[in-house]
Amino acid sequence: MFSVLVRAGILITNPNIRNMASSTNSKPVRLVLFDVFDTLCTPKLPIHEQYHEEAIRGGLSPESITPQSVRNAFRPAFKKVDAQYPLYGKHSTPSLTPEEWWTRIIYETLREAGASKGELDGKIDAIGPALMSRFESDFGYRNFPETIACLKELKELEVKTSVVSNADPRILKTLDSLQILPLLACSPTLSWDVEAAKPSATIYEKACERCEEKVGEGIIMVGDELKADFHGAASAGIEARLIRRPGEWSDGAVRDAKEELGGVNVVSSLEDIVKEVKQRNATP
Asked: Which InterPro entries does this entry report, sorted A to Z (predicted)?
C-alpha cells in the first residue's frame, strides 16, 4: 500500500529535498505546533490488529473476522460513516457524540470484516467502549523516543507549544495518558472545536490565535503528512517541517510513492526541531 522507498527512508535523502538545516529563516521561534499521530505518537500495534483483538475479547467468534479482513474494512467503513456524519456527527440530525460516531465506525468495520449482524448487535455495546478506552490511553499508543524530551526542552527554552489535529475531544485523553498534554503551553486546536480541518489554513490560523501569536515567520508546524501538515501550514503563512522517520510509519500514515518533496523542509526526528530552535533563539 505504501512505497518501498518511503518505508526504507530513501526519499528523505533525495538531494532535491530541502532539509531543515538549510533553512534561511533567522527570526527567533516563538511557537511550535505539532501534528499528533505519526508525529508525537504512534499505535503500539497496527490499528486493525487492535480492533481484531478487542473484538475477539468482546465475544465475536474467531472464525468470523481476521486481522486482514479488519484491515481491508476499516478505511471503507471510515469513509462511509464520515460521509454520512461529517465532523463526527456534530451537526447531524440528530447530532452524535464522538463516542456514538466512533461506535458506528467500529460497527461498520467489523460488519464489513465479516461479523454477522446478529452476533455484532449483541456484542457492540462491549466492544465499542473497550476499543475507545484502549485508544484513549497508552495501551493503544506509544510516544516516539524523543517526544517528551523535545517538549520539555522547548518548554525550558520558553518556546510555546501546542497541537493541531483533525480530531474530536477524545484525543485529549490520549494526550494526557501519554504525558504530552501537561507539557503543552497552549491548549490543542482540534477540527471538532474550530470546525475546520487540515489542510485548511483556517485551523492553523485558529491555532495561532489560541496561542496568542500572529501567523508568520517564527511559527513552526511539524507533521508527517505532506498535504495536511506541510502544505496546509505553508498556505497559512507558517513555517512547515515534514517529519519522516526512516522506517517509522503506521498503517494509517498517509504516504504516496509519487510525492514531490523538492523544496520541502524534511526532518527525521523531533530532535532536529530542538536544534533549530536553539540555533535561531541563541543570544547574539
From this structure: HAD-like_hydrolase_domain, HAD-like_sf, HAD-SF_hydro_IA, HAD-SF_hydro_IA_REG-2-like_cap, HAD_sf
256 and 161 share one domain: yes
pLDDT single digits (tens) 222-261: 999 999 999 999 999 999 999 999 875 566 666 676 778 8
Structural domain range at position 234: 4-42+142-280
Strands 189-190, 219-223: pairing kind: unpaired
CATH number, domain of 74, equals: 1.10.150.720
Distance, CA of 34 to CA of 119 (rounded, Å): 41
Residues 226 and 258 in one domain: yes
Contacts of 87 (CB under 8 A, 6+ apart): 191, 192, 195
**Do 126 and 172 belong to one domain?**
no
Using the 3D structure, point to which of 135, 158, 192 is the last residue of a domain.
135
**137-181 pLDDT, tens digit each:** 999 999 999 999 999 999 999 999 999 999 999 999 999 999 999
Contacts of 216 (CB under 8 A, 6+ apart): 237, 238
